[in-house]
Amino acid sequence: MLKKKGFKGILMLSMVVLLAFAAACGNNTNGANTGSENTGATNNTATNAPTEEAVKLSGEIKIDGSSTVFPLTEAAAEEFNKEHTDVRVPVGVSGTGGGFKQFCAGEIAIADASRPIKEEEATACKDAGIEYTELSVAFDGLSVVVSKDNDFIDHLTVEELNKIFVTGSTVATWKDVRDTFPAEPIVMFSPGADSGTYDYFNEAILDKAGIRNDKAISFSEDDNALVQGVAGSKYGIGYFGFAYFEENQDKLKVVPVDGGSGAIAPTYDTIKDGSYAPLSRPLFIYVSNKELERPEVKEFAKYYISNIGKFAGEVGYVSLPDEQYATEAAKIQ
Fold it and tell me: Where are the domain boundaries for CATH 3.40.190.10 in the chain?
């Protein structure tokens, strides 16, 4: 009898242990599935810690648009890829307008933009069923530059810049701009018409009259080509984002601009406080809402906004206030 009771006790204890083990396995299996299904959709906030396989991201996030925003997005893409090695993030530079054309055609997930989306571009996106989220990422100071060899320009007024660049201008030499300048031909360099920098300069300096298009001016969507053009001509002048001046200070000289309150040069402080007027501007990325449903895109957008303030200073731009980044991050949720 004692042996039978002992055997029964052991048997019952074994059954309890087996049942507990089965329940534990069932719970673990369900937790793993939940983590896998919700990766990206809940941004890895499942109750149980997901496995490494569950949170591993892959795929491709195509980005194109502004050459001004390119250094910011490239920096974010490179750092993001260090954490998510199976996600490809190619970044193109077709200009803000070129980026929006691809974006509204559903060809890219994110558009870099150095200006807000235009009404006709927004309409094109709406007609194509593309809904999007606009995210502010940094400030820029559109910089007017001349060669380091230029020894006669100490500043230019908005009116003088208008006289040089506006469509229909008959200005040919620097002396035509200001009597004290030399009678040497002006060589101009400008971003192309698909560039948001072109649009911003046209609006802020030329009052939307348009930029001249004659043999005295060269256009390029590649800001590095503009840098080389201006640097190589003592009598050249051009304009582009502050980061490209910062990177090439050894061969370029920035021109302080007088917008009516005295000549002010672009610096981190004058861009951030808006005193570098009228050429301080915000920069943006536009993210397709449909693409945001992909976990890798949502995670990249979150990473971008969380880290771009740090990257901005590293690549020559001015970060937004922390509270604004918090506002932008809330849009992604």
Answer: 59-139+282-332, 143-278
